[in-house]
Amino acid sequence: MKIAVCIKRVPDMEMRFSIAADRTSLDQTGMKYEMGDFDGYALEVGLQLAEKHGPGEVVVLSLGPDGVQEILRKGLAMGATRAVQLKVDQVPFDGLAVASALAEELRSGGYDLILFGRMATDTANGTVGPMTAELLGLPCVTGISQLDLADRTGTARRDLEGASETVEFALPAVLTIDEGIARPRLASLKGIMAAKKKPLETRPAQLGPANLTVQRMELPAERPPGRIIGEGADAVPELLRLLQTEAKVL
Amino acid sequence: MATVLPAQHQPALPLDRLIIRQPPGPEAMEMDVLIVGAGPAGLACAIELSRLAKQDQETGGGMSELNIAVLEKAESLGEHNLSGAVINPCAFRELFPDLPSEQLPFRQPVSREAVYLLTERRAQRLPTPPTMHNSGYYTASICEVVRWLGERAEEAGINLFAGFPVDALLVDGESVRGVRTAPSGLSRDGTPASGYTEPTEVTARITMLAEGTRGLLSQAYTQWQKIGSPNPQLFALGVKEVWETTRPLDRVVHTLGWPLPTDAFGGSFMYPLSSTQIALGLVVGLDYHKAALDVHQLLQRMKLHPLFRQYLEGGKLLEWGAKTIPEGGFYSLPERRCGAGVMILGDAAGFVDVPSLKGIHYAMQSGIFAARVAFQALKSGDNSAASLAAYDRMVADSYIARDLYRTRNMRLVFKDGFYLGGAKAGLMTLTGGRFPGGRITMPPDASVPRITDGAAPFSPDGVLTFGKLDAVFKSGNATRDTIPSHLLVGRDVSPELAQFYSHLCPAGVYEVIDGQLRVNAPNCVDCKATDVVGPRWTPREGGSGPKYRLM
Amino acid sequence: MSAFLAFAETRAGGLRKVAFEAVTAARQAADSTGGGEVHAVLLGAPGMAQEARALGRNGADVVYVVEHSGLERYNPEVYSTTVSERIRSGQYRAAFFTASAEGRDLAPRVAARLGVSIAADVTEFEIQNDAVIAQHPAYTGKVNVTLKLTGSPALISLRPGFVAPAEQPREARVETLEPAMDPAAARVKVTELAQRSTTKLDLGEAPIIVSGGRGLRAAENFKLVEDLAAAIGNAAVGATRAVTDDGWRPATDQIGQTGRLVSPDLYIAVGISGAIQHLAGMRTAKTIVAINKDKDAPIFKIADYGIVGDLFEIVPRLIAEMKKVRSHG
Domain A2-204 falls in which CATH fold? Predict the structure, then answer.
């Protein structure tokens, strides 16, 4: 079983962000990075599938500058077989540009499954996975919360608003993974040591055209300070009035 | 007015869990040298050792490549480190002789400094005591220092493992064989949940304990080996904040007096990190007498003093943190800081000079000495206690011991209170430590009875002053809500004792609800204050605790 | 004057609210660029066509309907090939989808198939001559990004709930369309669509959450929180760590850093003082209401509206008043 997992290096979402002077990007001072949350689930799914349906190879890929090697090494430490960096100075915001580069790389790989996280936590577009599938002419199921594989077919569950779908698909396929399906394993000490010796290749990325660009980045307005509107049960009518007319949530 | 005696309610160190005699299993990871703690001491040790090994290889010395591993409990380097800081660069110069000062990870050279005696509204300038002269030194963020040292270590091929707390020593007879990492992925009741990772054993010919203040394994080793010291180690709790400021600070500031009560030892610091960033904090010895003393609250009150307020108004709190500092000085150093297969470095050994508030360069220097001794021991194949004792001799012959000896009683006189202590300290300074001679005996902090008394009410304004919850949020603490509590609380915790704990802990871990103690363990920022006088701290899964970036 | 297309999402034989949002957006876009035509495309099982007229209410001039027995449920490949072909034929300036679960699956595929880029999860947009300018919340809602999308057609997927369906009625002409491929030949098949029980709303989805803390004093008092949620109707019940710790509520109800991160429109905190992790879990809620007897409780700093007092008096009153509000619509 040959599985590719595409992961993205994103800023640590626990951080407090500030906007850089150019107003189109984030201030890099003290920036800490991590593997995107959904990518971690996808990688865990890939590793589990390779273990279950093995022998298998899990290849972890990332598009970006040399800094992405850190998350690729983490993927290797978790158990991936080898890693590929598609090198580019700056990752475009446009999913099509990224998908084009990934499709180029993955096309001749002979993968049974290509996994993505449901979306990258930084750009929050959720477009690269399905776009890559389309460019490769492969079937695609997005937002999977449950997955079973049999010989050359798979069954997945997708959660919708107030409902869920059961989806059957043929391999090879592209899947994007939602949370809840698996908790990423922690890299063990031995895994980290072994990762240093596993192959990590770097090649230039063949980006597609970027027609979606960032014009400006802004921090949302600070939450205005709240107020205590009254005391005791007698304040209730006023609360409801405010919720209806001011906050408009009722 | 009742008193509580903290020592009576403090659980004993669980030695049987901390010292493991069974031989390591076949899955154990083998290293040549293992360093617990990626702080200045641990990283300096790793870097120096790696340099010596490379040099040896290049000159055909016959030593094969060394496997050096550094285990750090924080998720990323620097996240659990906290200091003032004003750094004496001498240890950096020794470790990186070819680097000019501008390339060292410091913020600003110290140009001016001032010491003040504070009252509630005024600041009286005092002549700077000789022990507090900082010219030639630099203000710095220890987090940045540690991250920088970490990069140098990685460049040197040292294996840095962040997110791996260590919870036990592996021993063989009297010698240390290695350590065991803490498990992760436990649910609240302590049973493995999904994502459970079991402990890993790591063995090494030499283990360096560079755990920092109140290191658990260092405590376990000295207790197990029955290593005494003339005085018990004493601790102070420092609570610190980093602010963005609209008014540049032009000097390194230290203060004495208000808001500390006269029967407590300590003082404050305020350092310029840049023209728009300052670090400030309050340090208080944990042998204070009033159970209701709350260091975090005192810091909040202190910020309203005109001396500090002028720099904070219009600014923004960027980060908050807390950590203990070993302050017993010379007489609290363990009689030996090494043994078969092990050396104790830095704050874990107590190499801190309280009067000058310095510890980073001592930590790094001790790491450098440990590396040199380790290198010789590895070359000769002798990691016995006798062989490693060269470390103690190196420290004893160095400025570390000289400096600490000179100020050996300076902190200790303050157990007599501020005025008498101050007078004695002054005399000590004048006589280079010769008067008063002898050793002032000190009880351990936990043996000091605390007077339970009403606590002054405190209402944070949320602009200049903050409650503990907001503070912990600013430490970056994102500990998993569902992990088991890592704090060992004694039995029979009376409401008065619970109140004492709740004031003691700067992170709001302890609350008193209806007279009962409630423990909010995830709030813990690993400062170790309650480990000194109350519930014992034990490691929890990697990545727990604060995430300091600027401390 | 340009024409715009809206994808009208359906489920189980009916139009979803997001379908009207997409048509409204297309209408707004058309009106802002000289009043061109708005087309909609909808797919489904035979009989779907009668839903088409409803889209005229929000401004659709033409509704392309694709009916096929194999399209009882969503079919990614049939939908994407069919919609792509319609966009190609129609020469639209822009095409609107919504970033619903289905929309997030479909829209990027259509874009890649057409070789164009897509602005996803958009909260505001403006059609300019050479570009579309769109607002998009990113970085877990911590950063607002203004995007520029060039090229034609511009594909946009709207964040559900941000465009209020507006009445702009016209007579919508219905045209039949054949699916661009045989549904039976699809490599991805939705074999089942299961509605989730509507009696218990999932915390992650509920627009309103009522949460209880230690102020409730005992497990049985949690009934007040449940009753309030029931009185509101579309509300789920949450709890603080302290409460789930003590076993009053199951761990899945816990809202906090790692319990659940929730972002409802309205969050009502009953008897909750505001511990760090809990605040972190709910602080992105649009409106926060706190009821606590301690006026210094940290939660009041983050709450938009607070009532200080005894929750055992306040909440029953709130339940009674809420029932009145709900029964009046």
Answer: Rossmann fold (3.40.50)
